[in-house]
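Task: sequence in, structure out. Protein: ABC transporter ATP-binding protein.
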Amino acid sequence: MDAILETRGLSKQFLGFSAVSDVSLAVRRGSIHGLIGPNGAGKTTCFNLLTKFLPPSSGTIRFDGRDITRMKPAEVARLGLVRSFQISAVFPHLSVLENVRVALQRARGGSYDFWRSDAVLRRYDARARELLHEVGLAGFADQPAVELSYGRKRALEIATTLALEPTMMLLDEPTAGMTAEDVDRIVALVRRVAAGRTVLMVEHNLKVVEGLCDTITVLTRGKVLAEGPYAEVSRNPEVVAAYLGSDPAISGGAAHG
Ligand SMILES: Nc1ncnc2c1ncn2[C@@H]1O[C@H](COP(=O)(O)OP(=O)(O)OP(=O)(O)O)[C@@H](O)[C@H]1O
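Result:
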């Protein structure tokens, strides 16, 4: 398998407590990979290790053939492994277009180049408009970001992530706290931006996982319990038992939630 991201024996202890324990996972290039598991399973910790927001206690992480275990988030972002920013990273009083332009300027190291010519700024604007089009926000370019609905803020966040030209995107619960309508929009958006890229997402909504992910990894108590296609993994008795009482979609034993 052509794995773009691979971990071996990845572990993280907090004061002796193993939040992530000997996790070896491989994300196939070009796939949408879901990381799921019951509450407290270690998903967020694992995600923070992969995005370099936390240093591992032991184990290795390789991205695109390189050992990134000791790299900083900004370094791995330059290699093309980009974590979608938190909503708080959106500048509320800048327009939607300006938010993407700032992300482009940052990505190209020009954040303080206030002497940039109009021609350069126009080039950023043209690319920013393309990205807004890609995430379905073309009609909102001049609106202050603060006025966007929650779902559209997440779309803007994805546009600012795309500004960094990621080969692989890491999404932390992209549909958390959304209305059903926004969930459908984000699912369509993730599918669109995943074309030609690799996506790894932590997601609680199993309907979303089922609809989007090619492969899922199930964590429980910090360990990998199962890995494979949703239809197969959701029928795994150990997975059903781990979810029992916590999610009717899986604990019902069916692949449909
Ligand atoms: N900074 C920390 N210090 C101590 N313990 C931590 C820390 N971060 C996480 N943990 C513990 O590690 C375990 C895994 O937590 P984590 O947040 O990674 O799980 P999760 O699968 O993301 O859970 P949820 O679905 O509830 O968000 C939990 O028991 C948690 O209390």
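The first strand starts at residue 3 and ends at 14.
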